[in-house]
Amino acid sequence: MCLAAGTVELALDDAPESMRWQWFADLLDSQWGLTGRLGPILTEQIISELEQVARMCRASAQHPLDPQGWISAYQSTAVLVEDPAVVSADALHLALSAVNDIALEATDTSHPDFSVAVTLAFEALTSAVDVDREVSKSWILTAIGEWVTRTESAQAGLRSAQSCTNADNRQIANASVVSAGCSEKPLLKVRGNA
């Protein structure tokens, strides 16, 4: 509901594309993702589809894939999602629908919007028959926590890299002053010059 209301944003536009692809892959086939949480009710064929699309997401984090691969994944999940055994089990149907949406989005654009797939995956987690609502809520919070941790790490790394660059630039500037025959002086403390 938070995703639908826009109070939680997972696929941040300013997050690195590779980070988004990795998180989507993990949402499908990690311990905290669909295969880890729904494993006991998933068939081998559904697990295979989840893992296949997760591998494609991980590969897409490195380089764009041939659209034909995504089309093939879309078609195979579209057939499987119509299987009567899948249609009758909400969690299975929603999990496969999430994978199907990822394949469709990746076929249509090089910068897919996976908000529908994320919503479907979270719905699959809440639809597991044997799972208490509080448990499924904790599963979703874990997945969101994974995203937040990754984006915070990336932002901290970016801030650290910017600080190093600023410090390096100050050292280069001081070295230039010294090599020009002037004595090195401490930098003045000016706002923005930490």
End-to-end separation in angstroms reads 42 Å
The low-confidence runs, each spanning 5 or more residues with pLDDT under 50, are: 172-194
Please state roughly what percent of the residues sit in beta strands, choosing from under 5%, 5-15%, 15-25%, 25-35%, 35-45% or over 45%: under 5%
Number of extended strands: 0
Average pLDDT across residues?
A: 78
| Biggest sheet overview | none
Overall morphology: globular
Oligomer: single chain
What's the helix-strand series? HHHHHHHHH
Please work out how many helical segments DSSP would assign: 9
Describe the structure.
With 194 residues, the chain is mainly alpha-helical. Helices cover 72% and strands 0% of the residues. It contains nine helices and no strands. The chain has helices at residues 2-5, 17-29, 34-38, 44-62, 67-81, 84-87, 90-108, 115-127, 133-179. The radius of gyration is 23 Å and the shape is globular. The two termini are 42 Å apart.
Q: Can you summarize this structure?
A:
The protein is mainly alpha-helical and about 190 residues long. It is built from nine helices and no strands.
Topology:
Layout: H1 2-5, H2 17-29, H3 34-38, H4 44-62, H5 67-81, H6 84-87, H7 90-108, H8 115-127, H9 133-179
Helix pairs in contact: 2-4, 4-5, 4-7, 5-7, 7-8, 8-9
What descriptive keywords fit this protein?
globular; 194 residues; mainly alpha; 9 helices
